[in-house]
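Field reference: sequence -> structure
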Amino acid sequence: MIRLGQATISLERREAFLDGRPLRVGGRAFEILSVLMQADGRIVSKDELINQVWPDIVVEENNLQVQISSLRKLLGEKEIIQTVPRRGYRLLKDHEPNLPLFNPLASAPIVAQPPPVDAQSVPVFIVDDEACVRTALSRLLRAEGIEHRIFQSAEELLDADIANGPACLLLDVSLPEATGLQLQAALNQRGLPWPVIFMTGHGTIPMSVQAMKAGAVEFLTKPFNDDELLGILRNTRQHAATAYDQWQRVQHVRQLAAQLTPREREVLPLIVGGLSNKQIANQLGTSEVTAKVHRKHIMAKMQTRSLVNLVELYGLISAAPSPGPSSLS
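Structure field:
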């Protein structure tokens, strides 16, 4: 399949589609289109077209003009077949081979924006190697109706079957093997927006500074007051819900961007950079018609009609680091 203007063409099958719908194209029109495409951007004279399309018939030039006009309507772009005064016609080089049968605008799935997170539904993951601490914290959270899970090591949490949903952590710094700081770093590598409340019996200033720089929201020294902890958890769970909403939005935009073709991914930063269709065409060495088509497909696949919104979406995925495999090393 080959895209020309707004249509997709199969010369072999002599078929044409617009937004996935078949179009009726006459045999003469297909012959003219085939000649122009094989010319690969060269100007084809009117006599050459007439001789190839009507080899054994004497026809008036008006017949050729009618067929050219019908082709322009078919392709949805008048400029795609250029009339060169006193010389003939030229098909602008904006076709792209090996496209899917249906137009991307018709076949691209609708990616739904996920719903916002309720802070009251955010679970708390407790990670502490002391059984008495885990038990006391679990009892406190159960009494408050707060969903939670307990782990005795960093390794146990990372090995657990936990969905990439919202959460916050009550994390002991001094775990027996991998430390709390190492677990925090591993979770950051995964790209999960889980705020961390550190707990320690003998914290140091450098340790607390390191934790805060890595994104910890609080650093508590044991033993701590239950009411103080519950107040911190209330704020942290709200923070976790907000952070997860933002994280979900980034993932949503990445899903949209994943639908773009390699060429469209090349065009996207040029569009958000403020370049016109003509400037994009000059930079990529293609036609202005092609640049216009790329712009239209990108806007549709990114589910936006506003250039301002497209710039915002592009900024989201450009600024957010891509998640990678987590490691406790």
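Note: The chain is about 45% helix and 15% strand.
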